UniProtKB/TrEMBL annotation:
Name this protein carries in UniProt: O-succinylhomoserine sulfhydrylase
One annotated GO molecular function: transferase activity, transferring alkyl or aryl (other than methyl) groups
CDD domains: CGS_like
Pathway(s) served: Amino-acid biosynthesis; L-methionine biosynthesis via de novo pathway; L-homocysteine from O-succinyl-L-homoserine: step 1/1
Keywords, in A-Z order: Amino-acid biosynthesis, Methionine biosynthesis, Pyridoxal phosphate, Transferase
Organism: Kordiimonas lacus
Catalytic activities: O-succinyl-L-homoserine + hydrogen sulfide = L-homocysteine + succinate
Cofactor(s) recorded in Swiss-Prot or TrEMBL: pyridoxal 5'-phosphate
Amino acid sequence: MKNRTGTDRSKTKKWDRQTQMVRAGSMRSDFGEMSEAMFMTSAFTYETAEVAEARFDGRAEGFTYSRQTNPTVAMFEERMALLEGADVGRATGTGMAAMTASLMASLRAGDHVLAARALFGSCRWLLDTYLPRLGIETTVVDGTDLEAWKAGIKPNTKILFTETPANPTLEIVDIRALADLAHENGALLVVDNVFATPVLQRPMELGADIVAYSTTKHIDGQGRCLGGIVLCSKEFDEEHLYAYYRHTGCAMSPFNAWVNLKSLETLSLRVHGMCDNAEKVAKAVADRVVDTRHPDLPNFKQQNLARAQMDRGGTMVVFELPGGRDQAFTFMNSLEIVDISNNLGDSRSIATHPWSTTHKALAEEDRLELGITPGLIRFSVGLENADDLVQDVMQALDKAGV
Ligand SMILES: *Cc1c(COP(=O)(O)O)cnc(C)c1O
């Protein structure tokens, strides 16, 4: 089967994922360039008016306008689709554009969305504020409580939405159980797979219908460009996603797609390197801070589930300093190598204070219900030398009086 990139999936599908990350979806122009070409063009031209007509009819293959498809973007979409085991990918300008598309493409007034309450802050805004404004009902439940999910299902439930591990608390949600629950009730399961990355967790293999990413995080992973992608079946794309995508204009820029294509070549190396470091940092912090969370720590509550659906524990370490906001701020201000930022999944280690930044838009009681306390630190472990990182964190804990 040929796809938009003209590459042959019957071959690329058989490749190991590592080979796919480096090569899948690449197409060469007549110049035989080694690296993928960057097609910075808004529109395309046609040899004749008849060719233009045929392309618009769908009788002839080819590109028409980069709001719909673009060769560089198509290469990135094809590579991501293969990695995820999806038929189709649609790359978007930001991660939030992908999350919004994964919901808005098919929902209509009168539908109901059931979601985990521990979500990226802007995803909670979509569910709590925006969708209800359009007559779409939403309910959030404790993502770790399968009974709560079951009880939350209504006759009009169309989508179950979750992220796992959840941002920033690292709660693990059982993807397979949710996929079964969704399908028994005629709904679809959408998974925001940002924290786990396609290297560590493949929700579609566990039954998810739609997987969405912020490619801003590990996929670019070098702090350069915003982006997102929605991955789904051919049927969902044809029935819902493509029309939404082309008519609402959430496309990714060819430049960002090119950056992300190059980034995918090293994604696995970077994620595994970050996991190695995260395991060391988690262990060192756990010796000092009682509430330290990482799936590989012996006290991690959902370790069995994390191991069942993730290849490794991931790149994030979360811990709660008992002295609250003041201690958290002193700790962060004392870091010498690690940056203070709200990004994550970067090759540079980053410390975030979710209470005052990423989750500030949530009401205080909602933050507390989610376990986002004033002392909570989210630590995205990068690719620096592990001993340097551990030393930096230890001296900052000393200064904060932990
Ligand atoms: C960052 C993030 C998003 C949003 O992505 P942007 O690229 O910032 O728009 C969505 N979900 C999760 C889990 C994220 O970490």
